[in-house]
């Protein structure tokens, strides 16, 4: 009997949209990193291309004709490891890279020429930038990860406001809570940590997340109390765990998915108030 579980999704089949809605001419990259390879605002889509340091930019909506044309932005001297659009500005894009820099780009409206250089540069860091994310409620503030360093930046001043300390190994993820009060991090030392950056640079809480150190992900629900992590157990099976920050010593519940070499992305839409209850009911 095989010790590996067979995925219940093995026979699922995707249904593509109408061909008229397709975006053609995509040259997407496959470079591994802890960050995102595609992001969208309400106006633009940005994605990692097959050329290191270059992003593809495409309008979210077609501009008069049925085709949406991809343009390419050369933004770093090495591969782009993460990217994020500002929640306050559809055309403000932050990029992090293996070249150890964070750059902010003012993108034009569709049909106009892309910028030749960034509007702001943060860094260089001591090692490659792994993850970055804009603050959800304060304009011009973002968090970045490089090695064991997690920094909260004031982009306008081009200076870090604080550095979140105590990570024992490579930090794999850093995510703002939806109200922007807390930062959750996942780390190769298997610890899940919660920070209040305004109060102190050290973690206010920490616990072991997953038994395997491979590539953890994290997402907050619609409240400060619940968050969801993904990772691997000792059998290299993918796991999803639901956490309550008020009872942080162990997960509320967990779900084992399957055995796969690929990581599980953190759930993308956790903004609804009932998400934690639904996840617990599904996992339990």
SSE arrangement, N to C:
EEEEEEEEEEEEEEEEEEEEH
Number of strands: 20
How much beta, percentage-wise? 35-45%
- What is Rg? 19 Å
Global geometry: globular
Enumerate how many helices there are, as a single number.
1
| Class per helix and strand makeup | mainly beta
CATH class categorisation of the largest domain: Mainly Beta
CATH H level, superfamily name of the largest domain: YVTN repeat-like/Quinoprotein amine dehydrogenase
Sheet of most strands: 4 strands, antiparallel
Mean of the pLDDT scores? 85
The CATH topology of the largest domain comes to Methylamine Dehydrogenase, Chain H
What is the architecture of the largest domain at the second tier of CATH?
7 Propeller
Order of strands across the biggest sheet? 1-2-3-4
> Roughly how many Å apart are the termini?
26 Å
Fraction of residues in helix: under 10%
pLDDT below 50 for ≥5 consecutive residues: which ranges?
A: 271-284
Give the structure's gist in a few sentences:
It comes from Rousettus aegyptiacus. The protein is mainly β. The protein is built from one helix and 20 strands.
Structural description of this entry:
There is one protein chain. The chain is mainly beta and 284 residues long. The chain has 2 domains: 25-156, YVTN repeat-like/Quinoprotein amine dehydrogenase (Methylamine Dehydrogenase, Chain H); 165-259, Lipocalin, CATH 2.40.128. The protein is 3% helix and 41% strand. The chain is built from 1 helix and 20 strands. It has one helix at residues 275-283; strands at 38-40, 44-48, 54-59, 71-74, 80-86, 89-97, 102-106, 120-122, 129-134, 141-146, 149-154, 159-164, 171-176, 183-187, 191-195, 205-208, 212-220, 226-232, 237-244, 253-259. A 4-stranded antiparallel beta sheet has the order 1-2-3-4, with no helix packed on it. It has a 4-stranded antiparallel beta sheet with strand order 5-6-7-8, with no helix packed on it. A hairpin with a 4-residue loop joins strand 6 (89-97) and strand 7. The longest helix is centred in the C-terminal third of the chain and has 9 residues, at 275-283. The chain is globular, with a radius of gyration of 19 Å. Belongs to the WD repeat coronin family. InterPro entries: Coronin (IPR015505), DUF1899 (IPR015048), WD40/YVTN_repeat-like_dom_sf (IPR015943), WD40_repeat_dom_sf (IPR036322), WD40_rpt (IPR001680). This is Coronin. It is found in: Cytoplasm. WD repeats lie at residues 73-107.
